[in-house]
Specification:
119 residues; mainly beta; seven-stranded mixed β-sheet; 11 strands
Length: 119
């Protein structure tokens, strides 16, 4: 069973930065597609950024140019660098892993970390 543990959330002023980390258990991290999602109060969970096992990335339009996703397979960790934060970035951020083994798809979620952007 894959477990994901996020860290790095907190309170930051508009224009500030944070770096979120997500550490995964297990030995097959390198085949995971990793993603960061967020959910604001009263809103649906949305994809923020994702990175494939080969390092291809994609971002939500609302965060392009401000957020950067990266991964370190040696540390079983994916990161999300959040720059130029806006109040509308306030949400619980969740880490997600997806992988395929013998034709079956699997996924796992972290417990979430709160990001609050406020002056």
């Amino acid at each position: 069973q894959v477990q994901l543990v996020e860290s790095g959330g907190g309170l930051v002023q508009p224009g500030g930065s944070l770096r979120l980390s997500c550490a995964a258990s297990g030995s097959i991290f390198s085949i995971f597609t990793m993603g960061w999602y967020r959910q604001a109060p009263g809103k649906q969970r949305e994809l923020v950024a994702a990175i494939s096992s080969r390092g291809s990335t994609n971002y939500a339009d609302s965060v392009k140019g401000r957020f950067t996703i990266s991964r370190d397979d040696a540390k079983n960790t994916v990161y999300l660098q959040l720059n130029s934060l806006k109040p509308e970035d306030t949400a619980v951020y969740y880490c997600n892993a997806q992988w395929v083994v013998l034709g079956s798809r699997y996924d796992a979620w972290g417990q979430g970390t709160q990001v609050t952007v406020s002056s």
